[in-house]
């Protein structure tokens, strides 16, 4: 605002000065003293032939006497005045009436267009200069759009939690930027480029910023999409300018986010690829490993798709160090939660360790969102601190969606949903290898009318065959329960998500994980590469796994039919049961809700829920990867 106000003031002064100068040079601007005379004296002078000339403007008469004196007078209505003047030999001139308009306004209207044209031309000239200097002007489309981050408010390694191994990989970069001679005197060479890879939301950008903050060097940030334009050659020009800026500010860090937007493998597109993108990539390769040395300029890039990058970009001498930034483990999640909880007033019952154990697979961004949702819940409820119950509600919202309490369900639909979710819970309770039950609910959330969430005892690094078979059996529990209770013709479409999840899991078991004795340990990731007979064989194995799980689940539920009825009745009455309460109902123990505290974590971690939109709900089976 200060710059804008200063510019407006300068332009106002310029306009005023121009108007004053133009007014000073107007004709008649410097007039001699004029004598005011009475009309009778004017008539007498005319009769005496002492008036040389007059100018008549309506009834205002001005003129010059024979002795050179200027005069002015005001005439009454006199139709014979002009005849009297001409007969006396006076030179008579007549002018139209003078406007009452302010002279200043008249000059402004007359000269403002010229001033505006001059101002526009001046601004265009300034823009061209700015474009040539910094790439932000109208003519600067070929200049780099990298933004220099301010030193104020910088982050350091202390602000990054949950990725300790990744930070250790970058300590060398920080040491080099602080003391380059420590490495160069022994003949060492610091990597020119560091590629950060990992799932979205794991903190790759934050980690790159912390390197610059830790080393206290300039940090230029740009996105991969900022290089590519419809004009051929613009991207390459921006790459050159970006490295030129880096050289001037060396030692420094240049960070390119989402580098896969410009660094994809060349020649892979239709028609030989995108020429503009490939020229940009070629220029980047030359700058990183060309004829000139970019000492002190370290390029850090981030992507969650390293598989699509060009091999020349990943070879030693360019991005010769790749740092994986994975989703944090339970220890990392606890540290991340503590970082985000520093700004919140927490209740005494909040335990970050328990929350961390209940959020496997969460990235740093997911955990930040969880903490924010808990704070919003506390604000809506009018509490002065954030409690464990609000963190649990936030976790359920993030995993399963917001509650749809306004959705009206008939008693028949509620009962059908209760038996569906009861079948899932009962199958999970009695099946070896299944994760323990965390919560069963028939409250609609997101696109599901109900949900059974399981909690693995620890983070699942890999999937075992027993767990996969147990998950398939549990997934069939909802559909089997509906068939047993309501009959084959009365089953609902609520098992659509369960069927999809089971098919996906069985396909991975057969085609990727070698868990089929018939197909064997052969990878069939691409269906287009399989023959017709192989495709039929794979489909038969997938169907066999699902049908076997279906029959085993049917036998299990028929054996424990009384427990299924009790579980469904409890869900209809209470709508939501914790894992402990599910066990009590199955064992026939009474529920005591007086001391019920549905914080819901129980020291375990939830599987990622999935399920169909058709309702009544789905069973949370993680999508294999």
Task: Classify the secondary structure makeup into a structural class.
Answer: alpha/beta
Q: Helix amount, in percent?
A: 40-55%
Please compute the radius of gyration using only Cα atoms. 42 Å
How do the strands line up in the largest sheet?
A: 6-8-9-10-7-11
Provide structural commentary.
The structure is a single chain. The chain has 625 residues and is α/β, with parallel strands linked by helices. Helix content is 47%, strand content 10%. It has helices spanning 2-24, 39-47, 81-87, 103-134, 164-178, 181-184, 204-215, 234-248, 275-289, 311-314, 330-341, 352-357, 364-381, 388-400, 411-430, 465-486, 496-511, 532-559, 561-574, 579-587; strands at residues 35-36, 51-57, 60-65, 70-74, 91-94, 147-148, 193-197, 219-223, 252-257, 297-303, 321-324, 437-441, 451-454, 576-578. The strands form three sheets. Strands 6-8-9-10-7-11 form a six-stranded mixed sheet. Strands 1-4-3-2-5 form a five-stranded mixed sheet, with helices on one face. A hairpin with a 4-residue loop joins strand 3 and strand 4 (70-74). Helix 13 crosses helix 14. The chain starts with a helix and ends in a 38-residue tail after the last helix.
């Amino acid at each position: 605002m200060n710059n804008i106000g200063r510019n407006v003031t300068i332009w106002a002064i310029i306009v005023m000065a121009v108007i004053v100068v133009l007014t000073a040079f107007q004709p008649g601007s410097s007039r001699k003293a004029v004598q005011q005379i009475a009309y009778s004296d004017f008539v007498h002078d005319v009769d005496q032939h002492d008036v040389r000339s007059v100018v008549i403007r309506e009834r205002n008469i001005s003129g010059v006497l024979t002795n050179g004196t200027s005069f002015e007078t005001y005439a009454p209505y006199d139709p014979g005045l002009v005849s009297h003047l001409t007969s006396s030999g006076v030179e008579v001139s007549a002018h139209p009436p003078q406007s009452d308009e302010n002279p200043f306004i008249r000059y402004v209207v007359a000269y403002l267009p010229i001033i505006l044209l001059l101002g526009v031309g001046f601004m265009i000239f300034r823009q061209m200069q700015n474009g040539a200097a910094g790439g932000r002007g109208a003519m600067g489309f070929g200049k780099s759009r990298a933004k220099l981050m301010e030193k104020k408010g910088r982050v350091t390694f202390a602000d990054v939690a949950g990725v300790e191994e990744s930070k250790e990989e970058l300590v060398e970069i920080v040491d080099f930027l602080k003391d380059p001679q420590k490495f160069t005197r022994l003949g060492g060479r610091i990597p020119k480029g560091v590629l950060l890879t990992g799932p979205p939301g794991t903190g790759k950008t934050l980690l790159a910023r912390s390197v610059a903050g830790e080393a206290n060097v300039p940090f230029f940030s740009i996105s991969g999409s900022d290089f590519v334009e419809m004009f051929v050659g613009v991207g390459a020009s921006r790459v050159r300018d970006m490295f030129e800026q880096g050289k001037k500010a060396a030692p420094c860090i240049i960070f390119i986010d989402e580098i896969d937007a410009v660094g994809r493998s060349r020649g892979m597109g239709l028609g030989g690829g995108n020429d503009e993108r490939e020229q940009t990539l070629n220029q980047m390769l030359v700058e990183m490993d060309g004829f000139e040395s970019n000492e002190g300029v370290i390029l850090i890039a981030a992507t969650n798709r390293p598989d699509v990058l060009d091999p020349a970009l990943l070879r030693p001498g360019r991005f010769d160090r790749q740092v994986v930034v994975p989703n944090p483990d339970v220890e990392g999640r606890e540290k991340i939660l503590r970082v985000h909880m520093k700004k919140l007033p927490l209740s005494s019952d909040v335990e970050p360790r328990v929350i961390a154990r209940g959020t496997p697979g969460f990235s740093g961004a997911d955990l930040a969102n969880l903490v924010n949702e808990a704070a919003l819940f506390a604000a809506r409820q009018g509490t002065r601190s954030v409690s464990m119950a609000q963190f649990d509600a936030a976790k359920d919202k993030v995993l399963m969606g917001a509650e749809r309490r306004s959705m009206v369900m008939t008693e028949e639909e509620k009962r059908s949903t209760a038996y569906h979710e009861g079948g899932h819970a009962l199958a999970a309770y009695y099946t070896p290898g299944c994760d323990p039950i965390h919560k069963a609910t028939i409250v609609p959330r997101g696109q599901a009318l109900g949900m059974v969430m399981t909690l693995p005892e620890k983070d699942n690094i890999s999937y075992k065959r027993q767990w996969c078979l147990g998950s398939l059996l549990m997934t069939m529990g909802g559909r089997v329960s509906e068939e047993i209770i309501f009959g084959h013709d009365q089953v609902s479409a609520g098992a659509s998500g369960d069927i999809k999840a089971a098919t996906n899991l069985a396909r991975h078991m057969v085609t990727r994980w070698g868990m089929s004795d018939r197909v064997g340990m052969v990878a069939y990731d691409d269906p287009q590469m399989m023959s017709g007979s192989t495709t039929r064989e794979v489909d038969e194995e997938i169907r066999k796994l699902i049908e076997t799980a279906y029959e085993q689940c049917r036998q299990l539920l028929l054996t424990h039919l009384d427990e299924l009825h009790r579980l469904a009745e409890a869900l209809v009455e209470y709508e939501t049961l914790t894992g402990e309460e599910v066990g009590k109902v199955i064992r026939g123990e009474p529920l005591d809700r007086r001391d019920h505290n549905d914080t819901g974590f129980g020291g375990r971690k939830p599987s990622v829920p999935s399920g169909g939109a058709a309702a009544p709900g789905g069973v949370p089976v993680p999508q294999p990867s």
